[in-house]
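Protocol step 4 of 6: record predicted structures for both targets in the notebook before any analysis. Target 1:
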Amino acid sequence: MSAAPLHFLVAELCAAKSVEELERVYDAIRARGTAALRTTATEFSLRVAGFPVRLQRAAVRLGVEAGGEEGKHLLLVMIDEGNVEVELRNAAVRALDVDTSSGTLSTLLSVLSNEGPSDTELSQAILAYLARLPGDCDWRSAVRALHGSCLNPLAGVVHGEDRSRFAALFEAVDSERRTRRGPSIVYQRHSVHHVPPAPSRDGTLHNPYLDEFQRWEDRPGIDDDDRFWELRDEMFDLKAAYAYAIPTRAALELLAAHAPIVEIGAGAGYWAYLLRQMGVDVVAYDHEPPDGTYRNMYFEGGRAWTDVLEGGPEMVQKHGDRALFLCWPPFGDPMAEACLEAFVGDVVVWAGEWRRACATQAFFDALDQSFEEIAAEPLPAWLTEDALRVFRRRTR
């Protein structure tokens, strides 16, 4: 075997049917020195996606033993490859030497973005690796190399006390998000209002979102698995262009009955846009009003339909004489909780799914404890059970 050309040995290694055979061929390649290991690492980088677990394990060891750019590249390919076993992707992260090159950092940040704020073992392994890097890393170059769609999920991965450890990284992420243009929003076909629209004189309501939703729902193939995924992409485009909850006339009239209103987390301000058409007094805030960039992770590329002021829960106390309106607060985000804690008024109006996919359980518990539901109106919804619910504060 030792006299066989290296490419024959690599092919035999990739075709090994047992651990014993794999070890025998691997030892023969190792005996030829570091150059042979690095050549093998390069070949493995091209094939690792289709490897069985035994070869994936060998690939981690090969990446470490080969070293150099070839070994590092193999480890990065394994980390980036979703078909590799999670424990081996984690092992590949731990095997990486400290490296501040833009290529390494951008690969790890891209994977971290794909993991999202789900606190997976892989995301924790990557964060632990990044925490080992020196403080003078060139995060801006690494972030600039990322695909734009990575930026918002990445911004949501590290939060709380972790932000202090990665302040320079997330300063670079936030800076890049605010300067890049967002993706084209196909469904935002109508003129964007940067001033409150005049109330409709004839009582009509310009509600293109409801029309778009009904067209989407009537599309053929909605129950076909293959067609569904294509339609699901359109669903996300519609949410980014309009709102996460779909307003109806009945729901808007129920909400309007409790005006004046302050809305926190208004996103693109679509509900406020419709309310203002009806002559309703509403003040709308969002932490990151959409401006056509990646600035707002929920409305990438979208723009506000009406005036949306910059602000969050801290603005609630300034409007204690208004009903508080919350529309699909982000799941797991304490924003809605903070709004409720700061709110001194008597009426809270909620649009979204109840105790699922929105806000936090602590928010729902607090709302149930201090308020009672007095009215509700079902909403059309994207594969959820949405409603507009009105709550009045219990007797103090």
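Target 2:
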Amino acid sequence: MTQQANILVADDDAAIRTVLNQALSRAGHQVRVTSNVATLWRWVSAGEGDLVITDVVMPDENIFNLLPRIRKARPELPIVVMSAQNTFMTAIRASEAGAYEYLPKPFDLNELLQIVGRALAEPRGKGNQEAEAEQSESMPLIGRSAAMQDIYRTLARLMQTDLTVMITGESGTGKELVARALHEFGRRRKGPFVPINMAAIPRDLIESELFGHEKGAFTGAQQRSTGRFEQAEGGTLFLDEIGDMPMEAQTRLLRVLQQGEYTTVGGRTPIKTDVRIIAATNKELRSLINQGLFREDLFYRINVVPLRLPPLRERAEDIPDLVRHFFAQVEKEGLQAKRITKAGMDVMVNYPWPGNVRELENLVRRLAALYPQDELSAEIIRHELSDTYRNEIPQPGATPAEGMTLSQLVEQYLHQYFSKLGGELPPPGLYDRILMEVEYPLILQVLAACRGNQIRAAELLGLNRNTLRKKIRELGIDVYRVSKMEAPFSS
């Protein structure tokens, strides 16, 4: 049971003070409320309060100016910081200033009460050290949507740890950007950040790229070469597109993660390693495990903290902020400042963004470079988007696939896929990968339409029952979950 406590609440909003006072009092706590920082500091410096709940922006002072003094005077005092600013930097500043928890406004009252209970139940620590470096003025992550708030809070909790993080998300959602933020605002910020894209390296060179090689280790090895593990010593190694790593390299990587040491290709002397691992993929690793393409034991090693980045279509309310950010960037690069009409922004908000934030950034740069007018209309936005993908931009309420055949959708997907490679070719095995991408949703939706009845599903698909069962196992389809899904074709 949560202990009764004396809780200090500071917020400029009288309604929030009233709500918190009532809720915390009903929970059995004594509550004191104030609307200014000066009074809060007077209470804290006098030794009052077992916990502080405070907003960031107050009438007389920003709470971040006070937090270092509180941490110095009362290092054991837990502080819950609330804010309506809801940015990545707000969450990071709260974490670095020693806040116990950061809550974006509007917040869930039950969640706040749970946080209060956890904070009061935990042993009192010695407090966090002050931030070692000045804050970067540039915002590494943009967005105030609920989906992004969850990301910010998770990142803030991870900054002072070395836990391995597994970032998943579609191409263009910003996986490397998040990995860099974890490094640059974490405790390894003084060390190197070394990225390596598994999909961009020939399979027979991946082990050499990761672990380095000795002179004469293979044909063409004219001298010793350092690998990415050695280059990342003391810092962060970002393993992008880890789902494309061949099995041989997966085995060696697992051994490094288990033993904390590795040997170069052609070498015999073990080398100790001290790096933080952050991995990322746009693939479903559990499906690859079922197909024998990814080691299950490696998955559990790297999936310590899973972090899913939402696609842009799930956080469309962030698009105006992102557009302003990208226009500000291109203006610094010497291009003319632009703005988009409300109707034009509506077109952008309702577009499905298959290329996610990367696609949005490319569009903004193209608009800034190609159009002389200061204000860009909805017609211009429609023209640019439809010209790029050769299909009509969906109107509000329409689905992206409306009016398009499956063949056209696949063609559009492959057009975007090859465009993102910038003239390079993808790794071998594209045929099987594309068939797998289509096969999974096909079988999943047919099973859902048949309410999980595999006999009817096999008949509908034109497959043998044993073949269907094999496919279900290979693709990792949860038949129990499927049987509970609503049939996609039912009214």
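Step 5 preliminary note on target 2. The chain has a mean pLDDT of 83. The two ends are 48 Å apart (CA to CA).
Proceed to step 6 after PI sign-off.
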